[in-house]
Specification:
Shape: globular
Helix content: over 70%
Largest sheet: none
Distance between the termini: 5 Å
Number of helices: 6
Strand content: under 5%
Order of helices and strands: HHHHHH
Radius of gyration: 16 Å
């Protein structure tokens, strides 16, 4: 961890985890209903500009969604790194603590904050149950990634 500055771990880790999750989501929705991959980051942009504007915005709103999701995921990494700095014992239990962190972040972000404050017209409860289960698993993976990054930084 000493060879790489903390910000690089947080930003690089956030980008890597966000891109992996976006690829997963794009694959899920393509296989589920033939949804074009560009719709995934556009659906994130819809949190800010609304569903119609996000879909009409083309590559620009897809990039807004992509950058926004990378920033959100980097923030999740940064918060976990701070938690691990405060309570280093979490490094002993990287998998269960990281997965629990990711699932808790899923609940906070996608079940509480986005529905409460999003400009999007399509809400999480409009999605099939298999998508919810896939999200819980994916965000558990994001949490595990956050824990792994924090542990790598501490070495």
């Amino acid at each position: 961890g000493a060879d790489c500055p903390a910000w690089a771990w947080v930003v690089g880790g956030g980008i890597a985890l966000a891109l992996a999750d976006l690829v997963f989501a794009a694959g899920f929705w393509f296989l589920h209903s033939g949804t074009a991959p560009i719709r995934i980051p556009q659906s994130i942009a819809a949190w800010f500009v609304g569903t119609h504007a996000a879909r009409a915005g083309g590559i620009e709103t897809a990039l807004l969604g992509l950058v926004s999701y990378c920033a959100l995921t980097a923030a999740l990494v940064a918060v976990y790194v701070r938690i691990a700095a405060r309570w280093p014992r979490v490094h002993v239990h990287v998998a269960p603590v990281g997965i629990a962190y990711g699932v808790a972040c899923y609940a906070l972000v996608l079940r509480i904050l986005v529905p409460a404050f999003s400009a999007a017209s399509v809400k999480a409860h409009d999605k099939p149950v298999e998508w919810t289960l896939a999200c819980v698993a994916a965000w558990g993976g994001i949490g595990f990634g956050c824990a792994w990054i924090a542990r790598a930084m501490s070495r």
